[in-house]
Queue: 2 jobs
Job 1
Amino acid sequence: MCGEAQLKEQVERLRIVEVCSCEDEFCQSFYTAPKPRRPYGDGHRNVCLDAPWPGYLILNVVNDDVVYVEVLYRSSLC
């Protein structure tokens, strides 16, 4: 399992592949890898970060790669 320093290095290189389609008003989450057809399964973990704004920022990590970023209850990103 990689440490937070290695995850931090990935953040600068992340690209949005697809935005979350849940349509919840509080959600601005996005995929940084192709959306899976099934649950992530083994190798998946969540890393909860202290968001620099009111709300939640959660990295979904699979096999040490950030694949989805949950941005919840934050004012609009765009």
Job 2
Amino acid sequence: MISHRFSRFATLITITISVSYALSGTVLLTTDEDGKGRDGSGHVVLCDVGSGARDTIVPGNVRGACFSPTADQIAYSKAGKLCICNLDGSGDREVTSVATSTDAVTWAANGCLYWSQGDNSIRKVKLDGSDKATVYTTNYKSPIIYAKASHSGNRFAWWTPNLTVRGIDITTSEGEIFYGGGCRGTVSPDGSMVLRNRAGHKQFFIYDFEQGLNGELAMFDVPQYTNPVTGNTATEPCNAHRFSNVSNDYIVFVNEWRFVAYVFNIRTGEATLVGPGLARDFNPGPSVQRLAAPTITPSRGTFVDALEVTITTDIDNATIRYTLDHSEPTAESDEYTGPFTIDQTTTVTAKAFAGDQTSFTAVKAYTQTASEAVLDHIEIEPTGVEVVRGGIQQFAVTGYDQFGNEMSTDVEWSVSGGGTISADGVFAAGDELGGPFDVTATVPGTGISMLSSVEIVEASLRVTAPNTGDGFALGQTITVEWEWTGAGEYPGQVDIELSADGGLSWYSIVENSGSIAPADAGWGSLEWSVGPLGSEDISPVAEEVQIRVADYVSPNDPGMTGLSGVFRIAETIDAAVLPRASMETDRVSIGRRAGLLCIAIPLGGNHHVSMVDMRGVTIQRLQGRGPGEYRLCAGLTPGCYLLRVTAGGRTVSRKVWLAR
């Protein structure tokens, strides 16, 4: 049930949440190409809710994205750049450089883009790249994450890794407003409401912006999800809530167990299941159909004395109209009749008009300089970084001319070892520790380059209990212990999860809050009474069970996630504590022969042999009878594996380290 307390309603009304499939509009999605779930990055996709049709607009490595207020363009962050493009992907251009950690962007109606990048500040820039500035810096001890701005650019809401939602009106001196504990905070386009997700991820609240925690307007339960495989219906945790940038009536969020997106109408309580992906924004109106944007030349952005500008279009019988003051061209703007000359720094904005149709917008900024701007040097971000085995790191470059102004430049990437690096600067670490390795960005044909470095390190979050080979029964207590071996205090919170199916599904075993921070009394140790998992009451009984202590924000980041050994959970205590063969009597020998892993078993009776990696995934399973020798697959990746032999009611477990 949900209760509305909006002042615009004369009386309190109660509405039952229902899942709807009749919604029309367009959802802006990103895919999860890097495997980080709700905090992942990937392609920008437009999804028509009614038909389900999907079009990829921007390929790869995008994290934050939103519609323009008129829903005819998109702003997004990618590889250290803040960009905008039309809905068809045309007119793609860089607005400014940003940190690679940029997590959210808002296109406000005041003609500015606002973003947060994981530090203590919110920043802005005009659409032409000018007036780049920090608009707010918090004194709170925790950084600003996933900030969203109102269309006025005066009000902001965000989430902190300390699990609080906060907001600020920069036009007043009253300080930050607190909306309670939880995950994700977002402000409505008109700045009147703030939404926060509850820490347990199964409810969310809407507050009056000005009243903070005392101004609760509504509480919603997340919609129930029906598993298409089992047919079971249950309430599952949702996260990454965000107000539409086009309408005050809609929010978007994701089911974080299934990675499927929803659009939610806060007026009616209807939730629409969109399908796979992370929803970034929603336009409830019809998809904007526009003609192709005009072309503005020359392409270079600087000049010395004067510059002749030409605007062209391929649209038959179209009239081009343009402005020189950053404003959007209308049917009343100056008509383009031929090339014109500019003699000062100018932004040219153009649209084509044909009958009752208009084109997407073309924008080109030209900067007057004392002499022709040329690339002077580049800077690389980050300048040096540690990456865990199997992890990824985005590198980005900013170019500067001889006057110190930013200028767009293309580079070629290379790395001296430790992994591979893509054409757009994404480094993927290999499995071997080592380094530092040189990461080089080179501007082709100029001799200009810049070095950074990367070192491949072991994960710093370690699970020390339970251990490989342990056994537990339903109703018993498992003590989970972990430690952080990295520098300083662990930079966030963790969730404790259990998998009973080889790592395919993970279920939180932390009650209520869903996370534990270093400052909490429970940091480092958790006791869990063995019982059903998740809202579907999944049985934890299995021969191969594993626990992971996962970073709350980035649960799939190998550097911020620790895995326990593989243990078992049984129905009864007797089954959980079956006697194990001793080191003196089992005499299981392990070796490699001709590239194969060989296990000699002297025990009689039926045998079951399994090889499991430290993620809990079974690599190979064999069975036989009587004493014998078993040979497991060749080509195993170097690393740690668990070998388990079951015979005559006894289980022998060994950790095996394979080197090249």
